[in-house]
Every structure is written in structure tokens, then in C-alpha cells.
TrEMBL record:
InterPro entries documented for this protein: CWI-Assembly_Regulator, Rcpt_L-dom_sf
Name of the molecule in the record: Uncharacterized protein
Gene3D superfamilies (UniProt xref): Receptor L-domain
Pfam families: Ecm33
Organism: Chaetomium fimeti
Top-level lineage group: Eukaryota
Amino acid sequence: MFVKQLLPALAAIGSVAAQSGTCTVSTTTVNSQAEATKLASCRTVKGTVVIGSESGATIDLSGPEEITGDLIVRNNSQLATFSSSSVQKIGGNFKLEEATFLTSLQFPELTEARSIEWVSVTLLNTVSLGPLTKADNVRLSDTFLDTLDGFALSSAKSFKLDNNRRLSEYKSKLTQVSGELIIQANGLDLDVDLSDLIWIANMEVANVTQFSVPALKVVNGSARFDSNLFESFSAPNLTHTETGDISFVGNGFLQNMTFPKLTEIAGGLLIANNTGLDRVTFFPKLTKVSGAIKLRGNFTEVGFPELNIVRGAFDVSSTANIEKSCDKLKESAPRSQGGDGTIEGVFTCTSDNDKANEDTDGSTSDSGDIDGSDDDENGAAGLVLNAALFGLVAVAGLASAL
Ligand SMILES: *[C@@H]1O[C@H](CO)[C@@H](O)[C@H](O)[C@H]1NC(C)=O
Ligand SMILES: *[C@@H]1O[C@H](CO)[C@@H](O)[C@H](O)[C@H]1NC(C)=O
Ligand SMILES: *[C@@H]1O[C@H](CO)[C@@H](O)[C@H](O)[C@H]1NC(C)=O
Ligand SMILES: *[C@@H]1O[C@H](CO)[C@@H](O)[C@H](O)[C@H]1NC(C)=O
Ligand SMILES: *[C@@H]1O[C@H](CO)[C@@H](O)[C@H](O)[C@H]1NC(C)=O
Ligand SMILES: *[C@@H]1O[C@H](CO)[C@@H](O)[C@H](O)[C@H]1NC(C)=O
Ligand SMILES: *[C@@H]1O[C@H](CO)[C@@H](O)[C@H](O)[C@H]1NC(C)=O
């Protein structure tokens, strides 16, 4: 099908280009350097350029400054070096997919693309970009990149980094992310620095060694941290989440967290199986949680000094003795459990539970419903925490954004 379109498209290039600098190609497939050179006189390529599977080892697409559609390399095991000394803007998706020989990508003028989607480019390790300052969606998955210096976006809809085994540092210039940031399964020594980030809709971060969000003020949706290697976590400027949860699950080295300004979580709070955490006493200003609070771990102390409203359940269980904390927390239990009603859902607090770390999902059980009633109020409130769903939502969101 591409071949049919190619002939008239390329035939048109020669005549159109000379006059206006714009070549309309619809979709053209480039299978050799000679075919790439046919586009050299076009200032703008109107349409999509596909590098075909029989491209050979080197393609230089110099000449055009803009490609209005997509630029695609797909299922290619020949191309090793792909370059353009002229392309500044790609109106659509810059997509590299299963380009298994590609090691070098040289686009030193490229500053803008609607989306970057590089997936299964397992040898790609040398990349030169404008740098790229504008893109809605970025996905880098299964590459050989050890730096992201070519990416200098200040905002994005979605940014996903996964399975980049050599990546050891991501120093981001993002100030806002309106969709989701997903970082997972990269190199086990990944240092993520989001120093400029002010607000983010959703984030899901796993397997990172350092994580820094000094300026982060608002999480509009949810933030989730799983299986990370950091020993401490600090969100010094975070004031609230607008709709979602905060979750920390299975961060085995975590010993300390700080949330000095966090006043409200609009969803739930889940802290589970972070076995190095010996206390949960780092929410000095937290007053309102609109979902449930669920805590599981090895801690000996739990305290929420300013807590005023918890719409869901409050469910704590530790491998250690937390009797003293339970006695204090119990004062906030629902009236039906003898407390002052701060907590609206079921209140449960148990010590010496050997299996405390095994319960890591986002739902709270009704087992603590000690008054035996099965009231809807508690049932609904106890399940407000939707952290378990967040992963799915984020991935679906990303797929539709690309
Ligand atoms: C991938 O390219 C090879 C030729 O290099 C071809 O034989 C194969 O059919 C292509 N696969 C797909 C899914 O396009
Ligand atoms: C997130 O919250 C910030 C600060 O309140 C706001 O400026 C921004 O528009 C919100 N973004 C979304 C996507 O809701
Ligand atoms: C990476 O994190 C995921 C959770 O998102 C976890 O299942 C996996 O075991 C982690 N891998 C390593 C090597 O820590
Ligand atoms: C934290 O927020 C305050 C008040 O909004 C601001 O002045 C300060 O610069 C922020 N800190 C960082 C590291 O951005
Ligand atoms: C708890 O975290 C450890 C790593 O710290 C992990 O090996 C284990 O599988 C986790 N347990 C559950 C139930 O997630
Ligand atoms: C926890 O972190 C805070 C802020 O980074 C620090 O002031 C405090 O000393 C730490 N506590 C422990 C026990 O490490
Ligand atoms: C956490 O508690 C479990 C069960 O008591 C225990 O096996 C494990 O060694 C503890 N881990 C840490 C880091 O204290």
C-alpha cells in the first residue's frame, strides 16, 4: 500500500518543492539513502515519513525543517545511524519501534514533536536533540540510554520511562505534568531529580534510588511509590492532593519521610510493607483525609496530631507493639466505637500481627467493624481508597494519549 502512494508522492516532490518548499507526501516510505535525498529539497514535508525495513545502515534525512505528520522507524534491523541536520519540528509522533540495530540518533535541531515514542530500541545509546523543549507525550521504553540530556521539556501531558536499564539519572526540567509521570523498572541506580516540578496530575514511581521533589506543591490526582530503594522521602512543599491518593508500598529501605506542609489528601493514604519504617509520625499538619487511611508495617509508633476528618476507615496493623498509639488514636474513632467521630469509617488498630506486611492492597477490610453492624456508611467509606486501581488508570490514560 505504501509503494502505491510512494510513486506519485515522490514524483510530485520534484515539481512542488522547487516552487514552495512544501512537499506533500501523504505517507512516504524511505528505503534507501537515495530515497531520503529526494526529500532534501523540501523545506516542509507535509505528511508522514516511514523509514522502511530495507533502509540499510544509515539514513540522513537532512534538508527538511519540518515534517507535519509522523516520523516512524518500525521493525527495522538494518538501520544503525539515523540523522537529520535540519529537522526542527515533527508535527506528529516521532516513533521508533523495534529498531533493534539503531545505536545513534542525531537530530541536533529538533526542538518540538507532538509525541516521542521510542519502544524496543534496545541498542540506542547516543542521542542528540535540539534539545527537545516541546512535546505533549514522551515514552522511552526498553532503550540503552544512559542520559536524557536531550529532553528539556518544561511541561508535558505524559512522560513515561520504563525498562531503560542503563539509565542512572533523570534530571528533569518539568514544572507541570497534566497527565501522568510513570517511572518504573529502569536501572536500579536511578536518581530522579524533579527540582522544578510544581504540580502533577498523577505519578507512579518504582525502583528508583533517589527521588527529589523540593518544589512540588500539588498532586492533582494520585502519587504512588512502589519498590523504591530510597531511604528517605521528602515533599517539603506539598500541601494537598486534589482528588487522589498517596501510597507507599514495598519501599524496603525507607526509614524516614517528611511532609511538613501536607494538610489534605482528597483520596486515601496507603503505607504498607515499608519494613524499615519504624514509625508513622511525619504528617504534622494533616487535617483531612477524604478516603481511608491504611497502614501496615513494622512500626512502633503512629500519630496524626492534627487529624480532624477521615471520611473512610482508619486501619492500622503492625508487626510490633503499637498499643500506646492505638490508645491515643482510638479517641478519634467513630462514635459507634466510642471515639469523638473524627474517623467516619471503621477504626482498627492491631499490634503484633506477624502478617502485617503481607497486606498491601488498597482496600480496607470490614474485619474491624467491632460493633458488628454492617452499615452502608462504613462499607462505602472503607473502600474509598482507590490506589490499587491507579496503576491501570494511568496506563490506560497514557495509551490513549499517544
Ligand atoms: C519485519 O521486517 C521483516 C523484514 O526485515 C519482514 O520480513 C517482517 O514481515 C516484518 N514484520 C512485521 C510485523 O512487519
Ligand atoms: C493542578 O493543580 C494546580 C494547582 O492548584 C493547578 O494550577 C492546575 O491547573 C491543576 N492541574 C490539573 C490538570 O488539574
Ligand atoms: C520494581 O518495582 C515493581 C513494582 O512496581 C516490583 O514488582 C519489582 O519487583 C521491582 N523490581 C526490583 C528489581 O526492585
Ligand atoms: C515552597 O513554597 C514557597 C511558598 O509558595 C516558595 O516560596 C518556595 O520557593 C518553595 N520552595 C521551593 C524549593 O520551590
Ligand atoms: C514486601 O516488600 C518486600 C521487599 O521489601 C518484598 O520482597 C515482598 O514481596 C513484599 N510483600 C508483599 C506482600 O508485597
Ligand atoms: C527525617 O528527615 C528529616 C528531614 O529530612 C530530618 O530532619 C530528621 O532528622 C530525619 N529523622 C531521622 C530519624 O532520620
Ligand atoms: C519486619 O517485621 C518482620 C516480622 O516481624 C520481620 O521478619 C522483619 O525482619 C522486620 N523487618 C525489619 C527491617 O525490621
